[in-house]
Amino acid sequence: MRDVIEKSLLSFLPERSLSAARLLDAMTYSLLGGGKRLRPTLLLMTARACGLPIDRVLPAACAVEMIHTYSLIHDDLPAMDNDDYRRGKLTNHKQFDEATAILAGDALLTLAFETILLTEVDAQTRLFLVRELSQASGARGMVAGQMLDLLAEGKRITDEQLVEIHAKKTGALLRASVRMGALAAEVNQETLCALTIYAESIGLAFQIQDDILDVTGDVLLLGKQTGADLALQKATYPARYGLAGARDRVKELTQRAVNALQEPNLSLEASTLIDLAYLLTERVF
Amino acid sequence: MRDVIEKSLLSFLPERSLSAARLLDAMTYSLLGGGKRLRPTLLLMTARACGLPIDRVLPAACAVEMIHTYSLIHDDLPAMDNDDYRRGKLTNHKQFDEATAILAGDALLTLAFETILLTEVDAQTRLFLVRELSQASGARGMVAGQMLDLLAEGKRITDEQLVEIHAKKTGALLRASVRMGALAAEVNQETLCALTIYAESIGLAFQIQDDILDVTGDVLLLGKQTGADLALQKATYPARYGLAGARDRVKELTQRAVNALQEPNLSLEASTLIDLAYLLTERVF
């Protein structure tokens, strides 16, 4: 599945013209620069679990990854998290420059909405996909999460605020990935609800796992410095509940995700999604 | 028309919640911070000229203005044009901070694609609008133009390159504004072509006029410093052809725009669009 995602991402990038070469190089550098491809994988696996051939939703899957990639480029900027490395390579603004990185992010964000239109579903369903993606990634979703995360640096925040930051910053796009797979397959409301609970649960578990890896992870495997959250005095689960408490929470959430898909009468073949939920708890990068 | 645009822009902003207040304040600051509203006006006037009531395309008009506003916020950033003032007020990153300005831009860009979905036309036509907007504002359009503009600073460039920068940086979105009005009204191909020529012509004239005003304009009326292009050694029409030459070019282009709409057999009521073309040549800010 990973291979088909990589090929599709490449195919949806604009042609490299002489005049816009630098912009496209910067977009390509980050978009094809590795990464787990979790979001497009979730979208494709959900679509398939709901009976839709994955080649019909590849554009939507790539659109989600473009949004994710742009957000990383902008989050790494000096004015934001000021990171020099990402996925074991220089961050976009270090490899190019700040102006180029800002523009490459803007262009990837825009390209996501151009690409999603190519999803092979009917017109009304395509509109649902655009809505899902825009709502998840904008001022009530991912961008709000990044804003809240920045504002929370060095401050005391409540448990509720910590959950809200995670739900928006990482959770919203993971949730949308699963939901877009389901929406494309035009599943019934009950199945969409179950998949949404699944997505929200693994989304939060994924973020807690990220925080845990920032404390315990291997720099080489992660491709970025560990201890960054601590240095920025970021609110994290391990800082609040200890490593053991955070790990317990990951297990609970994973079980919740699995349970949601084991409800009777859902119109999906849940096994691969359940496997994925367990697999994510074991990741080391 | 301006009044209805201002009200609509406000109505499409997300509700102000306590947690995301700063992000929304920054978005609102720039989106409702004045401006000529040329792009939404063009879209609405075109739709009306093609027989469509403007209230049905207000979401599309606001979406275009959101894209325009985000591009100004990002262009003003220190890493880009490094401007302190815009429309007589502090630029977004000066009023808030760089991180907030980057995120407010991202959020407005995303909100544009959420808002455009509310346009009251059929599903397939809405998809055409999303495509038009994304193509015009992305890596083959506006963002590419900004990249080229930055790369051209202090360099000798050809006439063709100067035209390409203008066509992409400013022209693409003005062109899309007119075309979206026409697409929403489902005009025939001939009318769409004529309106596209009209849009491309006034778009280039508008940019040349901008360059002229950067030399001759009144700081108070413009709400920003003049001479900025010169200071940045930017390629401009006045720098290349002198003020008189640049003014002649504005007249020629305006005439070309008007002529395109005076072709027989077009399915539109062209008079207000023609008036607007002439009006734009007389603007002083």
In short:
With 285 residues, the first copy, chain A, is mainly α. Chain A is 69% helix and 1% strand.
Describe the protein's architecture and organization.
The structure is a homodimer of 285-residue chains. With 285 residues, chain A is mostly helical. The first copy, chain A, has a single domain, classed as Farnesyl Diphosphate Synthase (Orthogonal Bundle). Chain A has 14 helices and 2 strands. In chain A, a hairpin with a 2-residue loop joins β1 (85-86) and β2 (89-90). In chain A, strands 1-2 form a two-stranded antiparallel sheet. The radius of gyration of chain A is 18 Å and the shape is globular. The interface between A and B is large, with 50 and 50 residues.
Topology:
Two copies of one chain form a homodimer.
Chain A: H1 2-12, H2 21-31, H3 38-49, H4 58-75, E1 85-86, E2 89-90, H5 92-95, H6 98-115, H7 123-137, H8 142-152, H9 159-184, H10 189-216, H11 219-222, H12 228-231, H13 237-261, H14 271-281
Antiparallel strand pairs in A: 1-2
Features:
285 residues; 2 strands; two-stranded antiparallel ribbon; Farnesyl Diphosphate Synthase; mainly alpha; homodimer
So, CATH architecture of chain A? Orthogonal Bundle
Please provide the ordered H/E string of secondary-structure elements of chain A. Answer: HHHHEEHHHHHHHHHH
For this entry, what is the oligomeric state of its chains? homodimer
Please name the fourth-level CATH homologous superfamily of chain A. Answer: Farnesyl Diphosphate Synthase
- Shape type of chain A: globular
Can you tell me the CATH class of chain A?
A: Mainly Alpha
Which class best fits the helix and strand makeup of chain A?
Answer: mainly alpha
Determine the most extensive contact between two protein chains. A-B, 50 and 50 residues
Number of domains of chain A: 1
Low-confidence stretches of chain A: none
Average pLDDT of chain A, rounded to a whole number, is: 92
Largest sheet of chain A: 2 strands, antiparallel
Query: How many alpha or pi helices of chain A?
Result: 14
C-alpha end-to-end distance of chain A: 19 Å
| Helix content, binned percent of chain A | 55-70%
- Strand composition percent of chain A: under 5%
CATH fold name of chain A, please?
A: Farnesyl Diphosphate Synthase
Q: How many strand units of chain A?
A: 2
